[in-house]
Specification:
The structure holds two protein chains of two kinds.
Chain A (H helix, E strand, L loop, with lengths): L1 E6 L2 H5 L2 H14 L4 E6 L11 E3 L6 E3 L7 H10 L13 E4 L4 H4 L17 H6 L4 H7 L3 H11 L11 H10 L6 E6 L8 H8 L1 H15 L3 E6 L4 H16 L15 E6 L9 H8 L23 E5 H13 L1 H5 L2 E2 L2 E2 L1 E8 L5 E6 L4 H8 L9 E6 L6 E2 L10 H6 L8 E6 L4 H15 L5 H19 L3 H21 L3 H16 L8 H5 L1
Parallel strand pairs in A: 1-2, 6-7, 6-9, 7-8, 12-16
Antiparallel strand pairs in A: 1-3, 3-4, 4-5, 10-11, 12-13, 14-15, 14-16
Chain B lengths: L7 H11 L6 H12 L4 H11 L3 H10 L11 E6 L2 H4 L3 H12 L12 E6 L11 E3 L2 E3 L4 H16 L1
Parallel strand pairs in B: 1-2
Antiparallel strand pairs in B: 1-3, 3-4
Helix pairs in contact in B: 1-2, 1-3, 3-4, 6-7
The chains are: A alpha/beta, B alpha+beta.
Chain lengths: 525, 160
């Protein structure tokens, strides 16, 4: 029987994967051709989606991007020639063996090792591709040994703050309390990021496995995954995956034969960006407005419902199974400096080859944007890339040789954040992007601290005055005021929302003064 | 509003099921909005009573989160992504096209109740920008023509 693979990922579906699958089914029925269509996760090569794959002696062959109109000729190619099915290399959409596509071949996929290969809700697929090896190893270890492995691996929080994960684990494990929690921050609200979504939709058991290991190690028997409401597919997949994991004994009163209890629940956000901030997220799970808490107390000691809570991003928790399965030293051999392991970078915006690139830290932004991304989708000159979401800096091409490393980015007044890269061509006006950053902050600020609540609105007004005036002295004064305001927001805000809104604004002003009607000299003052 | 009282059985059913869940308020609001289409005023006092909260606390949560509506929705809700990635691929021009085609602002609802516009900041489709969500379905690699066709389909649906 002809076996084909096409993703069920929500973005593959948003560009027509379901229509292609339906067309294949209909056309195969018409031809009375036995056909097995497997809906897998996405490879993350989004410019090729919908990406159709078929088995061959050389591994899976890819075809894409496929439209329903291509279906008859593709089926001709799969069945017509005397050679193996899947050798219809002559088809105009043929890409050759998928794993030989340079974009994929040169990646170092640890977290996304199963992406595009397995069916998201198949436990058999998951186990056949290394799933639950980490949990099995963890069950045989003492919790302290698991915490030590996480510490030794050098894993840092992937949500943006890059705090050493092992230190959080140790703090929660050492805290004395009758009830502790593991909370997964899946409120992936940053524009340009989609790795959490891909992982939850495509490989939910990996996140579940990571959370179970965390729960067992720190002594928590309850975990929450807080997913933004904009990700309905992820919510549905996780709920289904919980039920499957419960039936298989991975969740419940005796997890994987450990004798310990652990269970999971999804909590759905409600469209508030600030709930991606960990303390606002905890407030939201508690049923309150997403208002940021002052720290200390740390969530590790007084988190959800006032109890010790391990809060991590999706990618941080999903990195744990491989660390436990293959060892801390295996993991820390990837990366550079204090940025160890791999990072799933996400290429978005005006980019020819948008998608997910998982590589060890240390490659340059240029390799990512120009090498993998292939430059702008519009073909126009590259103007800048915003790295790390709406609170990240706009980086000009002159700085693209900076290695993707937490410290190197911090040193140039930028941040890696969650690894999202939004590329812009020369038609995007950076003054309007600076204004947008402030407007976004004004709309999404929780309102607790003054620099963020008031500063964002005042900032919009300053940008408006700066752009409107033709008087150069006035323009210069407003630029000075804007930089001063950025400084106040950066150092005076309670959390990263106000604190880092300064990054896109200050970087736009610094690197693209012409968009504000300023010359370089003035902007540098 | 007397007809809102018709929703009380739904509200009571949700509360009976969920009120003892730790941190129950958001799941309860989502469930009510899912079943009724919005959060009726009549729900606020019922929720406050069931969860032992003040009316202000319940109102405060409803108004804090963008997702919660306190009026019935239009037949179709179109959420165009306005975040940076989609802006870099022409989302602002698409937003202008929508405003012009429907003669509405970014948060408007058409007079015939066919379509509501809402901005959204990121649908996770950034590798295939620009994107929108129409009645829960994401459409990516949007073009002006495709957007016009989607809106027309919503309007035609309203006419029948």
């Amino acid at each position: 029987m002809l076996k084909l693979y096409i993703p069920c990922d929500s973005v593959a579906r948003a560009v027509g994967a379901d229509q292609v699958a339906d067309a294949l089914q209909r056309e195969a029925e018409r031809r009375q051709l036995p056909l097995d269509i497997q809906r897998t996760s996405s490879r993350g090569l989004y410019w090729l989606e919908p990406l159709l794959e078929c088995d061959s002696a050389q591994g899976r062959q890819g075809f894409g991007p496929v439209t329903p109109d291509d279906v008859p000729s593709l089926l001709d190619a799969f069945t017509g020639e005397p050679g193996e099915p899947g050798e219809p290399g002559g088809h105009s959409l043929a890409l050759g063996p998928v794993e030989d596509i340079p974009y994929l071949k040169t990646q170092q996929r640890l977290l996304f090792a199963r992406a595009g290969i397995t069916r998201p809700l198949s436990l058999d697929d998951y186990r056949a591709h290394g799933g639950f090896a980490g949990l099995e190893a963890a069950v045989a270890l003492d919790g302290a040994e698991v915490v030590a492995a996480v510490l030794d691996s050098g894993l840092r929080g992937r949500g943006g703050a890059a705090f050493p994960a092992g230190i959080k684990w140790r703090t929660v494990r050492d805290a004395v309390a009758g009830q502790k929690y593991v909370v997964c921050n899946a409120d992936e609200g940053d524009s340009g990021t989609f790795a959490d979504r891909m992982l939850m939709e495509g490989d939910p058991f990996l996140l579940i496995e990571g959370m179970i290991i965390a729960g067992l190690a720190v002594g928590a028997d309850k975990g929450y995954i807080y997913v933004r409401s904009e990700y309905p597919d992820a919510i549905r997949v996780l709920d289904q995956a919980f039920a499957i994991a419960r039936d298989a004994g991975y969740l419940g009163s005796d997890v994987a034969g450990s004798g310990q209890a652990f269970d999971l629940e999804v909590r759905v956000g409600a469209g508030a960006y600030i709930c991606g901030e960990e303390t606002a997220l905890l407030e939201s799970i508690e049923g309150k407005r997403g208002i940021v808490r002052a720290k200390p107390p740390l969530p590790a000691l007084q988190g959800l419902f006032g109890l010790p809570t391990l809060v991590h991003n999706v990618l941080t928790l999903a990195s744990v199974p491989i660390i436990i399965a293959k060892g801390a030293s295996f993991y820390r051999d990837f990366g550079m400096g204090r940025s160890l392991g791999t990072m799933p970078f996400q290429l978005a915006g005006n980019i020819r080859q948008g998608g997910l690139v998982e590589r060890a830290f240390g490659l340059t932004l240029r390799e990512l944007v120009e090498g993998y991304g292939g430059g702008t989708a519009s073909g126009r000159p590259l103007k800048a890339a915003q790295v790390g979401g709406p609170l990240g800096a706009w980086v000009p091409p002159s700085h693209f040789d900076t290695p993707l490393d937490y410290e190197a980015f911090a040193a140039m007044g930028a941040m890696l954040g969650h690894g999202g890269v939004v590329v812009a061509d020369d038609t995007l006006n950076m003054a309007s992007m600076a204004r947008f950053a402030l407007q976004f902050c004004a709309e999404e600020s929780c309102g607790k601290c003054t620099p963020c609540r008031i500063g964002s609105t005042r900032g919009m007004e300053v940008v408006d005055r700066l752009i409107a005036t033709s008087d150069m002295t006035e323009r210069h004064d407003q630029a000075l005021l804007l930089r001063d305001l950025c400084d106040t927001m950066q150092y005076g805000s309670l959390c990263a929302m106000g604190g880092m809104t300064a990054y896109p604004v200050a970087s736009a002003l610094k690197y693209f003064p012409a968009d504000f009607g300023l010359t370089h000299t003035e902007a540098a003052q | 509003m007397p007809d809102e009282l018709l929703h009380l059985p739904v509200i009571h059913r949700v509360l009976a099921r969920d009120k003892d869940t730790p941190g129950a308020l958001l799941p309860i609001l989502h469930a009510i909005q899912h079943d009724i289409g919005y959060i009726p005023d009549a729900a606020v006092a019922e929720i406050a009573h069931a969860l032992n909260l003040s009316l202000a606390e319940v109102h405060g949560v409803i108004s804090f989160y963008h997702d919660f509506r306190t009026t019935p929705p239009a037949r179709h809700t179109l959420r165009l992504c306005r975040a940076e990635s989609c802006q870099s691929r022409g989302a602002e021009a698409l937003a202008a096209q929508l405003r012009e085609q429907l003669a509405l602002d970014d948060h408007g609802t058409s007079a015939d109740g066919a379509i509501s516009l809402r901005p959204v900041y990121c649908l996770g489709a950034c590798a295939c920008s620009p994107a929108l969500e129409l009645d829960g379905q994401v459409h990516a690699r949007l073009t002006p023509e495709r957007l016009r066709a989607l809106v027309n389909a919503c309007r035609e649906d309203a006419a029948c």
